[in-house]
Specification:
heterodimer; A: 184 residues; mainly alpha; B: 247 residues; two-stranded antiparallel sheet; 3 strands; 4% strand; ion transport (chain B); CF(0) (chain B); transport (chain B)
């Protein structure tokens, strides 16, 4: 026994038993237990792990989908805003163009009406002048006629006697008889 | 010669009865150092798993992620969340570090518990989780130490050392001691948990090989996962603590 322990101690310093190889002792290498442990581990671990990983994948997919949707929404809103901007710009341009033509038209209308009014006033003026002219002429005519009649009356009164009067009346009767013959 | 051969036979018999080898390592000679080769081999396997799965998963990135890409993005979000909670606003540059810590420890713990390492027989020692070796965990803890020192110094310059006399200068010895206990506790916590779980499972398997070890194996998976999370969270917390502003 002492030999055994002696050599055990000395061999423990530099053991020289064995070589490379495959250990086929089932009881020592423990494959049954190992396979049972591995089997249980894989069986339960697979369920848990695939749950975790699927959750993670779902989360990633959802995040990506959400951000895509937000992006789409943002692009849509941008497009709508741009369309509105274009429409408003066009309307503004139209207003501007229309506004200018309106102004032109108003100006022309104003000018025309002013011309018309001026014309009317001109007409009134001319008529009034003509009327006044006519009145003046009539007045002058009347006065001249009065003067002529007064002169004639004076002449007649100065140079009228019975003989002249009889000769004038018989001439006029003779004129009336000729006129009646012409009419018949 | 006879004594040695019969003791070797007896020893083989001993090995057959209790195949628990604790503390025996498979040594490689690199330069002047003896390296624990079994830890290196299992670490390489863990690194290959991590790099390979990462490269495959991000090969064709889509906006709607496929299953592998979804899983890795989920892990990245989790690590980012841990860093953000612990470090605060400037958590960006530290996510790769915390992520590497967490993923390396997590995958190495779970690979030690789930992969059938015992099928491959080494000349000495056996393959198991790389974090069941104190060297690995101390290396990780020292890296964390360097990381939080670097964080504090790069953020505050030499004013970082003013934190040793806050809130009162009486606590100076305790603050200095903290710089030693932080990596110590990190390394031992991880090492103890992983090695102990491994030992319990091996002992139970050697006693009752078939059904009884299974609950303990589940417990081992659970605690080793938690240990990875704790290591990463504490590393982030130390980094955040050394980067935060004045109290």
């Amino acid at each position: 026994m002492k030999n055994v322990t002696d050599s055990f101690v000395s061999l423990g310093h530099w053991p020289s038993a064995g070589s490379f190889g495959v250990n086929t002792d089932i009881l020592a290498t423990n494959p049954i237990n190992l396979s049972v442990v591995l089997g249980v581990l894989i069986f339960f671990g697979k369920g848990v792990l695939s749950d975790l990983l699927d959750n993670r994948k779902e989360r990633i997919l959802n995040t990506i989908r959400n951000s895509e949707e937000l992006r789409e929404g943002a692009i849509e809103r941008l497009e709508k805003a741009r369309a509105r901007l274009r429409k408003v710009e066009m309307e503004a341009d139209q207003f501007r163009v229309n506004g200018y033509s309106e102004i032109e038209r108003e100006k022309l209308n104003l000018i025309n009406s002013t011309y018309k009014i001026l014309e009317q006033l001109e007409n009134y003026k001319n008529e009034t002048i003509y009327f006044e002219q006519q009145r003046a002429i009539n007045q002058v005519r009347q006065r001249v006629l009065q003067q002529a009649l007064r002169g004639a009356l004076g002449t007649l009164n100065s140079s009228l006697n019975n003989e002249l009067h009889l000769r004038t009346i018989s001439a006029n009767i003779g004129l009336f008889g000729v006129m009646k013959e012409i009419i018949d | 010669m006879n004594g040695i051969s019969c003791s070797i036979n007896a020893l083989n018999g001993l090995y057959n009865i209790s195949g628990v080898e604790v503390g025996q390592h498979f040594y490689w000679q690199i330069g002047g150092f003896q390296v624990h080769a079994q830890v290196l081999i299992t670490s390489w396997v863990v690194i290959a798993i991590l790099l390979g799965s990462a490269v495959i998963a991000v090969r064709n990135p889509q906006t709607i992620p496929t299953a592998g890409q979804n899983f890795f993005e989920y892990v990245l979000e989790f690590i980012r969340d841990v860093s953000k909670t612990q470090i605060g606003e400037e958590y960006g540059p530290w996510v790769p570090f915390i992520g590497t810590m967490f993923l390396f420890i997590f995958v190495s713990n779970w690979s030690g518990a789930l992969l059938p390492w015992k099928i491959i027989q080494l000349p000495h020692g056996e393959l198991a989780a790389p974090t069941n070796d104190i060297n690995t965990t101390v290396a990780l803890a020292l890296l964390t130490s360097v990381a939080y020192f670097y964080a504090g110094l790069s953020k505050k310059g030499l004013g970082y050392f003013s934190k040793y006399i806050q809130p009162t200068p009486i606590l100076l010895p305790i603050n200095i001691l903290e710089d030693f206990t932080k990596p110590l506790s990190l390394s031992f916590r991880l090492f103890g948990n992983i090695l102990a779980d491994e030992l319990v499972v091996v002992v139970l398997v050697s006693l009752v090989p078939s059904v009884v070890p299974i609950p303990v194996m589940f417990l081992g998976l659970f605690t080793s996962g938690i240990q990875a999370l704790i290591f990463a969270t504490l590393a982030a917390a130390y980094i955040g603590e050394s980067m935060e502003g004045h109290h």
